[in-house]
Design brief:
It is a single chain. The protein is mainly α and 146 residues long. It is built from ten helices and no strands. It has helices at residues 3-17, 22-29, 33-40, 48-57, 62-65, 83-93, 98-104, 110-117, 124-134, 138-142.
Length: 146
């Protein structure tokens, strides 16, 4: 699946549904007009912090925003904990070690893990990879869905 294309299409559809221009959406979510244009034109990847702002704005799940499901929202969204904390929690719940995640299965790098520990944002591509690996939704992965 081409998630960048699915995301672009979902975003266009949601903006049209709410009759929002790039400028109006920019003001609502606090993201530059040029970033919105690059997402729509598939020229720039989106990161979790921006995706969460969009999902909140459009009252939809991350799964819906990225074109992975047709149901807009089937739970009440919660505030997300820092991504690193949530990832560690899921790793513990599924008995996944850092060794398995980094070395054996090569899902993420130790560098990425360290960056998240220090508060860096995570790209949607990596989110999707991790959601598939842990067999969960994007919203569950980030702690938005219980």
């Amino acid at each position: 699946m081409d998630y960048m294309s699915d995301f672009s299409e979902s975003l266009k559809e949601l903006m049209l549904e709410k009759n929002l221009t790039y400028r109006a959406l920019s003001k609502i979510i606090g993201i530059s007009i040029s970033n919105i244009g690059r997402w729509i034109n598939r020229e720039q990847f989106i990161y979790l912090s921006s995706a969460l702002k969009l999902a909140d704005c459009f009252e939809c799940s991350l799964e819906f925003l990225f074109g992975r499901v047709d149901t807009r929202l089937n739970y009440i969204p919660r505030s997300c904990p820092p991504f690193y904390n949530r990832l560690k929690e899921i790793m513990q719940l599924q008995a996944i070690t850092q060794y398995k995640l980094f070395i054996k299965d090569k899902i993420v790098t130790p560098s990425q893990f360290h960056q998240w520990k220090n508060g860096s944002d995570i790209s949607y591509e990596t989110l999707i990879t991790l959601a598939k690996y842990f067999n969960c939704t994007l919203d569950y992965l980030v702690g938005r869905e219980g």
